[in-house]
Amino acid sequence: MSAQPTMEPAPARALNMADALARRSRSHPDRDAILAKKGRGEWTRTSFGELEARVAAISAGLAASGVTQGMRCAVFVRPSADLVAVVYALFRVGAIPIVADPGMGRERLLQALEESEPEVFIGVPKAHAARKFFPKAFQKVRLAITCGPRLFWGGKTLAQIERLGRTAQHPVEPSTSEHDTAAILFTSGSTGPPKGVVYTHGMFAAQVEALQALYHFEEGEIDLAGLPLFALFDVAFGMTSVFPPLDPSRPGDCDPKAIFETLRDLGVTTAFGSPAIWRRVVPWCIDQGYSLPHMRRVLCAGAPVPPDLIADFHRVLPIHADVFTPYGATEALPVSSLAGRDVVPSLLPQIQAGAGTCVGAPRPGMRVALIRIQDGPIDAWDESLCVAEGEIGEVCVQGDSVTEQYDHRPEATRLAKIPDPEGGLWHRMGDAARFDSEGRLWFQGRLAHRVQTTDGTRFPVPVENIFNTHERVRRTALVGVGPPGAERPVVVVEPLKGEMPGGKVMRAGFIMQLKTIGARCPLTADLEEFLFYESFPVDVRHNAKIHREELKVWAESQLPT
Questions:
Q1: Reduced to 3 states, what is the DSSP secondary structure of residue 386?
Q2: Cα dist. 74→35, 87, 110, 142 in Å?
Q3: What is the pLDDT of residue 9?
């Protein structure tokens, strides 16, 4: 009997994210690709044809300066046409842009850069000044490129690189495949140190396809890129990216009037941003009596989106538009999505009764499973890991847009990834959730934020959603005082502006009202301890994820052990 021939693995297909820009520049060279402005000046416009010409020149200039495929390049460029042009030029060369949020704090940022070992540094003058003062994180940098005026640190300017590329005899032709590393994007570090997530060109392409299937973006639409990196996807969709007038490291401090005028004057049709942005913009629009007639959709992500914000959104959006709440992470996006008009009013009673926050059914092509909660690594996937129907478990996902590893962090990779004997791997989201009878996921909170008492485990989001119904409460956070396994549940309350109780009598009255709300639900009926905190510490990227670890430490300092 002859031996059966073995199946050879399919060869990797040629793929490069920069190809999307080349296609758009050929089909619509004169259409606006990017709208941005400096200060209060006029909007500057960059067409797809102009952007492609810049990318071609910068990529050729980088190649002539010694930048090659696989070389790591730290990018610190403000949201602008320069940012998109630089990243797409690096894609085309096959180099690897490393993108970290400067707002993560100096120590974390320097640690991230030291781990990622960039050989090229492209940044604004302020970033280069920091490079000279903290050289340890930049030991391997061989080429420094300044986006703007160059001072005492040497190297080249982006303008010089671009001029060099325009005189090059041959343009750069991409030679990457779907499995080649395209970029390293850092997590926000909201529940631990920021980690570099390794993206391939194939994963980026899969994300583009998934987002397109979910939201039906159309060529020629105008997108307000509240998260600057989303502009990289806009190019693939053939949409115009608008960089709004806000500090991307402090979106919660944006000027609502400036954001509204941008939406109105430019005819913006879609927007992606943190709940912190819309917490300022939407109430301002309601107070002023303004609506957003051009909008088709809003994607609101980065933290659970309060139902009252969704309801307020519907007061300013046209009837055909909606606000969507995609669920995912830097390591896996998108996992699921939910339309706001499915939340309010139909799911609102369940949310306010402690069911958690619904994030929708898994999108097509994404496998989602819930496993028993455990803190250590899992060496192999097995169906016996999964919880029974209706139970809360840790969210695990598998799909073509799920990243496979962290950069230079093998232990973090081992903890977060579960190899599947049947092929591929599962990513552990670090979130607790349950499925309802209709196959929708209900988010319960981060596993790192669960409160482990002598009576069992409490998850923060269901509890917080109950107390957030108080008319004088902006948000709440459930934290545990004491060691895990013997924690006391404490509800920390951030009142609305101007509603902070000023004395013992006012605090007692406020607490009594909260206890009355809690008594209506078995989940919260036994909660006795409440503290008031004027303004919660939040993450830098979205200004929306509550730093419960900080609140836990503070609560322990306020209460007797």
A1: strand
A2: 24, 10, 11, 12
A3: 62
Distance from C-alpha of 303 to C-alpha of 449, rounded to nearest angstrom: 14
* Contact yes or no for 559/552 (Cβ under 8 A): no
Surface-to-core class of residue 478, CB atoms within 10 Å of its CB (0-12 exposed, 13-18 middle, 19+ buried): buried
Judging by beta carbons within 10 Å of its beta carbon (0-12, 13-18, 19+), is residue 37 exposed, middle or buried?
Answer: middle
Mean pLDDT of the chain: 94
Angstrom distance (rounded) from CA 85 to CA 89 = 6
What's the confidence (pLDDT) of residue 103?
66
CA distances from 228 to 82, 225, 249, 306, 511 (A): 12, 5, 10, 23, 41
Q: What is the DSSP letter of 146?
A: E
Q: Taking Cα atoms as reference points, which of 374, 380, 488, 475 lies closest to residue 432?
A: 374
Measure the CA–CA gap between 416 and 376, rounded to whole angstroms. Answer: 9
Where do the H-state alpha helices sit in 134-219? Answer: 158-166, 201-215
**What three-state secondary structure class fits 196?**
strand
Q: Coil, strand, or helix at residue 25?
A: helix
Which of 439, 458, 459, 281 shows the shortest CA–CA distance to 361?
439
What's 427-467 look like in SS3?
Answer: EEEEEEEEECCCCCEEEEEEHHHCEEECCEEECHHHHHHHH
- pLDDT tens-digit readout, 507-540: 999 999 999 999 999 999 999 999 999 999 998 7
Q: Which domains does the chain have, with CATH numbers?
A: 47-172+179-200 (3.40.50.980), 353-445 (2.30.38.10), 450-558 (3.30.300.30)
Q: pTM for the whole thing?
A: 0.94
Q: Report the alpha-carbon distance of residue 419 to residue 381 in Å, rounded.
A: 6
How far apart, in whole angstroms, are the C-alpha atoms of residue 413 and residue 198?
A: 11
Query: What tokens were used for 164?
Result: 């060099």
Which two three-digit tokens encode residue 117?
């070992």
The string of DSSP codes covering 319-375 is: TT-EEE--EEETTEEEEE--BHHHIIIIIHHHHHTT--EEEESBPTT-EEEEE---S
What per-residue confidence (pLDDT) applies to 248?
Answer: 83
CA–CA dist 282, 286 (Å, integer): 6
pLDDT, one tens digit per residue, over 88-129 is 999 999 999 999 877 677 888 899 899 999 999 999 999 999
Cα–Cα distance for residue pair 322/215, rounded to 1 Å: 11
Q: Which amino acid makes up residue 162?
A: E
Distances from the Cα of 448 to the Cα of 130, 397, 479, angstroms: 33, 18, 11
Strand order in the sheet with 72-76: 156-157, 143-146, 120-123, 72-76, 96-99, 181-186, 196-200
